[in-house]
Every structure is written in C-alpha cells, then in structure tokens.
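Exercise 3.2. Students should predict the tertiary structure of the chain below and write it as structure tokens, then compare their answer with the key that follows.

Predict this chain's 3D structure.
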Amino acid sequence: FDWTNWLTYNVSHGLASNDVVDIYENTNWNLWFATNKWASKFDWLNFTNYKKKDGLVNKEMTSISGTSDGSIWFATMHWVSKFDGTKFYRHVLWYNDKIIKMEDRLQRLYQ
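Answer key:
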C-alpha cells in the first residue's frame, strides 16, 4: 500500500480461501489468515497454507490469535489448534467459538 493503491490478495496468489474470517500479525511481522478453508501465513513474499495434514483440526476457522510466547491459536466451533512455530497441538472447546485470550504476568494462557 502506497497510500494511493491497494493490492488485494486472493487464492490466485496462494491464499487458502477468499473467505477470510480473521487476521493476526505475529511478532515476526507475518500475517496469519483464518479462512473457511484452513489457515494461511503470509511472509510478505509468499503464502504458506496449513491444513489437517499439518495438524489443524478443522478447516472452518472462526478466529485466530497469538500469545506472548509466539504461539498462534486457531479456533473452530469446538476445537482450537495451537501452533508453536514447528508443530500444531489440538485442544477441545465445547462451549465457545472464539478464542478468548487472557495471560497473567507469568505469561500463562487462560481460556
């Protein structure tokens, strides 16, 4: 963006889906996209898409967030997936469809 022209990214550029439901920018300046068809990371040059084979639980994301330890959290209707930079971990949520993030001063995550 040069304050005059906008550049729009879509699936033809590598984004997982044109239906983006949430965006998060991590501490490395990467943009993470939660879509209705998995998740995408944009490093300002290329998109990397993450799917079930990578460890995500469900393709229909509802939100995305990050924590101070660098983890990225992806929420679906009843599950969350945590990405620690190398691996995904799955967690069950039976009551919420959005990530509610609260960290104490010791940087412990509560939901």
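Discussion points: The first strand starts at residue 20 and ends at 25. Strands lie at 20-25, 31-35, 39-42, 47-50, 63-66, 72-75, 79-83, 88-92, 102-103, 109-110.
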